[in-house]
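User: Okay, second chain of the day. Same drill as before: sequence in, C-alpha coordinates out.
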Amino acid sequence: MNQVSKYLSAALLAVTLVSAVGCSSTPQKEGTGEYIDDSVITTKVKTAIFNESTLKSAEINVETFKGVVQLSGFVSSQADINKAVELARGVSGVTSVKNDMRVKGQ
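Assistant: Same drill. C-alpha coordinates below.
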Protein backbone atom coordinates (compact mmCIF):
# COMPACT_ATOMS: atom_id res chain seq x y z
CA MET A 1 0.00 0.00 0.00
CA ASN A 2 2.88 2.34 0.77
CA GLN A 3 4.37 1.76 -2.72
CA VAL A 4 1.06 2.65 -4.40
CA SER A 5 0.88 5.83 -2.35
CA LYS A 6 4.37 6.85 -3.54
CA TYR A 7 3.46 6.26 -7.21
CA LEU A 8 0.21 8.15 -6.80
CA SER A 9 2.01 11.08 -5.18
CA ALA A 10 4.63 11.12 -7.94
CA ALA A 11 1.95 11.04 -10.64
CA LEU A 12 0.03 13.88 -8.99
CA LEU A 13 3.21 15.95 -8.72
CA ALA A 14 4.00 15.33 -12.41
CA VAL A 15 0.51 16.40 -13.50
CA THR A 16 0.73 19.53 -11.35
CA LEU A 17 4.13 20.50 -12.80
CA VAL A 18 3.00 19.93 -16.39
CA SER A 19 -0.12 22.02 -15.78
CA ALA A 20 1.85 24.86 -14.22
CA VAL A 21 4.42 24.94 -17.03
CA GLY A 22 1.72 24.68 -19.70
CA CYS A 23 -0.10 27.75 -18.37
CA SER A 24 2.97 29.90 -17.82
CA SER A 25 3.69 32.93 -19.92
CA THR A 26 6.49 33.75 -22.33
CA PRO A 27 7.52 37.16 -23.71
CA GLN A 28 5.27 36.55 -26.76
CA LYS A 29 2.41 34.67 -25.11
CA GLU A 30 0.29 35.38 -22.05
CA GLY A 31 -0.47 32.83 -19.40
CA THR A 32 -4.08 32.10 -18.53
CA GLY A 33 -4.11 34.42 -15.51
CA GLU A 34 -2.50 37.26 -17.45
CA TYR A 35 -5.05 36.86 -20.26
CA ILE A 36 -7.89 37.19 -17.78
CA ASP A 37 -6.23 40.19 -16.10
CA ASP A 38 -5.70 41.87 -19.48
CA SER A 39 -9.33 41.26 -20.43
CA VAL A 40 -10.44 42.98 -17.23
CA ILE A 41 -8.08 45.92 -17.88
CA THR A 42 -9.36 46.25 -21.47
CA THR A 43 -12.95 46.30 -20.23
CA LYS A 44 -12.18 48.91 -17.57
CA VAL A 45 -10.39 51.17 -20.09
CA LYS A 46 -13.24 50.84 -22.61
CA THR A 47 -15.74 51.68 -19.87
CA ALA A 48 -13.75 54.75 -18.79
CA ILE A 49 -13.59 55.98 -22.39
CA PHE A 50 -17.29 55.20 -22.98
CA ASN A 51 -18.28 57.14 -19.84
CA GLU A 52 -16.36 60.22 -21.03
CA SER A 53 -19.01 62.18 -22.94
CA THR A 54 -16.47 64.17 -24.96
CA LEU A 55 -14.98 61.05 -26.58
CA LYS A 56 -16.50 58.96 -29.36
CA SER A 57 -15.72 55.59 -27.87
CA ALA A 58 -16.77 53.63 -30.98
CA GLU A 59 -13.79 55.10 -32.84
CA ILE A 60 -11.17 54.17 -30.20
CA ASN A 61 -9.87 50.60 -30.12
CA VAL A 62 -8.36 49.19 -26.92
CA GLU A 63 -6.05 46.17 -26.68
CA THR A 64 -4.05 44.99 -23.66
CA PHE A 65 -1.03 42.67 -23.45
CA LYS A 66 0.64 42.04 -20.10
CA GLY A 67 -0.73 45.26 -18.62
CA VAL A 68 0.33 47.44 -21.58
CA VAL A 69 -2.69 49.15 -23.13
CA GLN A 70 -2.62 50.08 -26.81
CA LEU A 71 -5.06 52.72 -28.00
CA SER A 72 -5.74 53.09 -31.72
CA GLY A 73 -8.29 54.67 -34.00
CA PHE A 74 -9.29 58.12 -35.16
CA VAL A 75 -10.41 61.03 -32.97
CA SER A 76 -11.36 64.65 -33.56
CA SER A 77 -8.50 66.42 -31.80
CA GLN A 78 -5.23 66.13 -29.91
CA ALA A 79 -7.21 66.93 -26.76
CA ASP A 80 -9.25 63.73 -27.33
CA ILE A 81 -6.02 61.73 -27.63
CA ASN A 82 -4.68 63.24 -24.42
CA LYS A 83 -7.95 62.54 -22.58
CA ALA A 84 -8.10 58.90 -23.73
CA VAL A 85 -4.48 58.29 -22.71
CA GLU A 86 -5.11 59.95 -19.33
CA LEU A 87 -8.18 57.76 -18.73
CA ALA A 88 -6.29 54.59 -19.68
CA ARG A 89 -3.39 55.44 -17.37
CA GLY A 90 -5.87 55.91 -14.51
CA VAL A 91 -7.09 52.31 -14.68
CA SER A 92 -5.61 50.00 -12.06
CA GLY A 93 -3.37 47.31 -13.51
CA VAL A 94 -2.21 49.40 -16.46
CA THR A 95 1.59 49.43 -16.58
CA SER A 96 1.89 51.72 -19.62
CA VAL A 97 -0.11 53.11 -22.53
CA LYS A 98 0.88 53.01 -26.21
CA ASN A 99 -0.85 55.69 -28.24
CA ASP A 100 -1.52 54.84 -31.89
CA MET A 101 -4.52 57.16 -32.24
CA ARG A 102 -4.67 59.67 -35.09
CA VAL A 103 -6.50 62.96 -35.49
CA LYS A 104 -9.00 62.79 -38.37
CA GLY A 105 -7.89 64.70 -41.45
CA GLN A 106 -4.18 64.64 -40.69
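The domain at 31-106 is CATH 3.30.1340.30 (Histidine-containing Protein; Chain: A;).

User: Thanks, on to the next one.
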